Amino acid sequence: MKKFASTFAIALIMAGTLGVAAAPAQAQQKDIDLKGDVKLEKVVTGENGEDTVELVTPDTIVPGDKLIFGTDYSNKGTQAVANFVVTNPVPKAVRLAPDASDELIVSVDGGESWGRLSALTVTGEDGAQRAAAPEDVTHIRWTLASVAPGASGRLEYPAIIR
Amino acid sequence: MVNYHRAFASTLALSVFLAAPAAYAAGVEAGTLIENTATATYDDGTGSVSVPSNTVTLRVDEVLDVTVTSLNSGPVSASSGAAVLTFEVTNIGNGPEAFRLTANPSISGNDFDTDIDDIAVDTNNNGTYDPGVDQILTAPETTKVLAAGEAIKVFVITSIPGMVLDGQKSTVDLLAEAVTGTGTPGTVFAAQGVDGGDAIVGGNGADDNATGSIIIGITKVDLVKSATVSDPWGGTSAVPGAVVSYTITANVTGRGTVSDLVVADIFPAGTTYTAGTLALDAAGLTDATDADAGESSATGISVKLGTVAGGTSHSVTFDVTID
Fold first, then answer.
1. pLDDT given for residue A29 in this prediction
2. Same domain, residue pair A71 and A88
3. Could you say which residues from 24 to 83 on chain B have a Cβ atom under 8 Å away from some Cβ of chain A?
4. Which of A7, A63, A71 is facing B27, going by the closest CB pair?
5. Where are the domains positioned within chain B?
6. Which of B23, B26, B34 lies closest to A93 in CB terms?
7. Is the pLDDT of residue B24 over 50?
8. What class, spelled out in words, does domain B220-322 have in CATH?
9. What is the 3-state secondary structure (H, E, C) of chain A?
């Protein structure tokens, strides 16, 4: 995919320098394009005193702020792809927000095992098993049986800065 | 702001973070990079393929906030000279910050305003002001840069002015303000945070204050001496052979205590001490110089009362006979 390769190259220039070359992108054509972004959830109090939630481009972020990490995927190829799995490690400095959907398939052990959060347990500091909490989530995973040519979609998860 | 950065793996391996209870609590350190990358794997018909997304990077900005707490359990007693108030200043922001300190002695309701001499830092961290050891801050009094979560003890050293009265109180307010700036919570100081990030005023306004009080304890001793005369005929005539019973009452008043209090008296000329009559609070004392508090000599008596608290009184009694 030329598009992907060129986008990545621009990113490298913006970063200034990078030791790792982008050669693998040219070695094999990729049909799938992934594009990540992040928004800050900002509560704006209107003139009438009612609060509305806006998603804005993060400018100043501090602990406690809520972020929405998103990944747009699209199949730019001519063939459907199968067993499409997107895996997203949760950055250490954030925790999964408590209002995240329980439909999300997550891991609380570094990606070893997976399931809905409500079905997972972790070993507490006292050595006893306890129900997993949103802050225990280390990875999030989305699975689609197939993505048709030209199809696209968006995957999101909410997180709070620790 | 979406940045494309090089990998900063070491920055992310900071420590185990605890869940932040609310916005503007200390939380992750300012300058921490939050990097998010998703990876897709799929089967394109020829085999398994893996594709990463771009990495979205955010830098955590710096929260400016502070608490000031009085470490004195109550008003500090003083009578004159220096009085020291102790406070704790804690950086509850998430980045390194220094704080400017201001001690204000002019507080509404004060009986008197004490004089502020210095603000010092508890350099040896023992909770007690040690002159010559603990660093006295020079104007404008400013703490060193405190790491996120770091606390220091601070002394406000004051002088009690003259003309103060027992029981009078003076309150001193210690204010700490983030050097970067203060303001209403949410105020942003662009590019003044860690690593060129923003600094943002936290929930306390990036400043805080606490008060400590000094209470004057001036302790006084008043001695009142009285005498009753009993003549040999049942009367009260001061004639030879009559017995004079002296009572010396020591009244200690004020909020503090006096130490090493000794009540002594000299026998009047023309009288002779009646041996074995010396008593303190109606309890007999021997005349000898020994373990008990009293003693008598050829010329007078002496009773050691030691440390006596304000608000108490003691009476020393003895008899003499008119020659």
1. 60
2. yes
3. 24-28, 32-45, 48-49, 51-56, 58-63
4. A63
5. 9-63, 64-216, 220-322
6. B34
7. no
8. mainly beta
9. CHHHHHHHHHHHHHHCCCCCCCHHHHHCCCCEEEEEEEEEEEEEECCCCCEEEEEECCCCCCCCCEEEEEEEEEECCCCCEEEEEEEEECCCCEEECCCCCCCCEEECCCCCCCEEHHHCEEECCCCCEEECCHHHCCEEEEEEEEECCCCEEEEEEEEEEC
